[in-house]
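Retro notes (design track)

What went well: tokenization of the new backbones is finally stable.
What didn't: we kept losing track of which sequence belonged to which structure.
Fix going forward: every design gets posted as structure first, then sequence, in one message. First example under the new rule, 116 residues:
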């Protein structure tokens, strides 16, 4: 329980650090733009996903880059808190979905996309 509390305390830090931001050169659209356009959404595992599996290579690259950065950060947080990466992902996923603005896509626990 104490570990979960420590992990929860770090989630706001992830958001403040701009975690998930990808350099413009990595894609024509940044993460915020893609989410606002309904192309990418937040998943309960703390990662982002393509709302439409038929998305182009630029969006796939963006999702891969963001998820690679997030997984690296989750691993750091887990190691520094004697927790598991899965626990950190669950906490971050819940927080990121909570912070997702109305009108953007999020994934439910069953793997279905819906507009928040």
């Amino acid at each position: 329980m104490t570990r979960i509390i420590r992990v929860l305390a770090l989630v706001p830090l992830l958001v403040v650090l701009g975690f998930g931001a990808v350099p413009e050169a990595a894609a024509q659209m940044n993460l915020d733009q893609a989410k606002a356009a309904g192309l990418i959404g937040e998943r309960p595992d703390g990662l982002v996903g393509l709302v439409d599996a038929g998305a182009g290579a630029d969006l796939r690259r963006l999702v891969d880059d963001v998820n690679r950065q997030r997984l690296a950060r989750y691993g750091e947080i887990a190691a520094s808190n004697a927790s598991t990466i899965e626990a950190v992902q669950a906490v971050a996923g819940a927080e990121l979905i909570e912070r997702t603005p109305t009108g953007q896509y999020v994934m439910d626990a069953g793997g279905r996309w819906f507009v928040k």
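Added context from the reviewer: Residues 57-80 form the longest helix (24 residues).
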